[in-house]
Amino acid sequence: MTVLPTFSFSKIAAPKKGTVVLLAAKDGKLPELVAELDPSSTLAKAIEVSKFSGKAKSVVDVLAPANSPADRILVVGVGDVGEASDISWAALGGVVRARVAGDKAVTVLLSGDGFEVSPDAAAAFAQGYLLRAYEFDKYKTRKKDDEASEKKPSAQKVGLMTAEPAACKKVWATAEAVARGVMLARDLVNEPANTLGPVEFAARADALTALGVEVEILVEKDMKKLGMGALLGVAQGSVRPPRFVVMKWSGGKAKDQPVAFIGKGVVFDTGGISIKPSGGMEDMKGDMGGAAAVTGLMHALAARKAKANVIGIIGLVENMPDGNAQRPGDIVTSMSGQTIEVINTDAEGRLVLADALWYCKETHKPKFMINLATLTGAILVALGQQHAGLFSNDDELSGRLFEAGVLTGEKVWRMPMGAEYDKLIDSKFADMKNVGGRYAGSITAAQFLKRFVGDIAWAHLDVAGTAMSSPATDTNQSWASGYGVRLLDRLVADHYEG
Ligand code: BES
Ligand code: MN
Ligand code: ZN
């Protein structure tokens, strides 16, 4: 199993051993310290021969000559240092980690010719480095070739040299907390459904009590008492009972109104009686990506001791076909009292969220509710894997989410809503039906959710395209992305703390 690297910060000095990483801006010039590392100018020659120009993410990689204290030296291009954002520093960290993954000791000089890497940038670099190191390999019993000779894999030690080690350490504590939240979300999404049912997921959420999160777990009879007929209708087709988890982080002042995050946690979505085609159905183990993001977010906020009161709610069910499963045409009564005709049992996420949103609104009266859900395949058709769909009744909240998306790289794109779409889910027999027509599938799903939020500021993020089956990036090589944790952590940090 991969052991994640550990980081330490120290003052700038000549590196004495192991792998050394130097940075160069777009002029390609090396930091002064290089003289001690490279007495015979091996590096200078390599740079010349490879026409290294300091372009962002370009690398020159040499074995250090015998008269160098180092074993290996890399020069990594930063490009235009003035233009570099936290996102590009994180990407750079990822690029470096990929290059040196097998090395025991790595020293990175976070200072170049004519520039210093700021504490924020240094923390972003380390965060990208750590996230790139994440692998979900717990079910691989055979070691990779490069691990074959090791008895026990040991953690790589990464020493980051900077002009401001104390300031870096402080920012890193926060950035690491967020990265741990991202990796928790990835772990949950990657985990197969046979080992992660509603009960097991709830236990993972319960573990957040160690960080000071209050966790309440409602079981079936509690949900029955509350009248959560929409969620329970989905759950009844599975032999594994549902769970409803309320996580509470009270880092703000007692009088601060909480903010709330709600996640769809369908641990596996077969479609139910409206069963899905078998091709690719294994991906539906990730249909709890919304709940995973909420859990990862709560971890991040608690671990970095966010100064805000935050509620995290996840509805955990399994959508299975069974003798006791709900049927198309069934009418269920939601906790809100509104009735729903279940036209398609595969439109189950909105049924779970209907009760979760209503419960949240009634029980916690939050400042806003943001729900995350792998809700529709249609959002992939509209936006692909680059943006989550954003649906909202509130322009300010939407603007803040958009901005947080730009800053973290977890991008959102706002989609339209309106009465013409809403009427598409009116039902002949009940207050509403759970699917619209053929068109605008992501929007009619959002209109459905909107019927359960009252007049609270609300945003729905459809993360079907961004939470799973993720394209490999500089900071993620795993199937699950952990999408949403950085985005929402940023939203809270920038607008709802202190
Ligand atoms: N979990 C799926 C949506 C999904 C699709 C997530 C692809 C990730 C990747 C959801 O429950 C679903 O089945 N939605 C249906 C809705 C339809 C029945 C109106 C869909 O998108 O086809
Ligand atoms: Mn479904
Ligand atoms: Zn689903």
Keywords:
498 residues, alpha/beta, eight-stranded mixed beta sheet, six-stranded mixed beta sheet, 15 helices, 34% helix, binds ligand BES, binds manganese (II) ion, binds zinc ion
Query: Approximately how much helix is present in the residues?
Result: 25-40%
SS content category? alpha/beta
Give the helix tally: 15
Strand order of the largest sheet: 9-10-12-11-15-19-16-17
Bound molecules: ligand BES, manganese (II) ion, zinc ion
Distance from N terminus to C terminus (CA atoms, Å) equals 40 Å
The averaged pLDDT comes out at 97
- Uncertain segments are none
How big is the Rg?
25 Å
Shape: elongated
Task: Give a quick account of the main beta sheet: strands, pairing sense, barrel closure.
Answer: 8 strands, mixed
Fraction in beta strands: 15-25%
- How many DSSP E strands? 19
Give a short synopsis of this structure:
With 498 residues, this protein is an alpha/beta fold. Helices cover 34% and strands 20% of the residues. The strands form four sheets. An eight-stranded mixed β-sheet has the order 9-10-12-11-15-19-16-17, sandwiched between helices. Strands 1-8-5-2-4-3 form a six-stranded mixed β-sheet, with helices on both faces. The protein has a three-stranded mixed β-sheet with strand order 13-14-18.
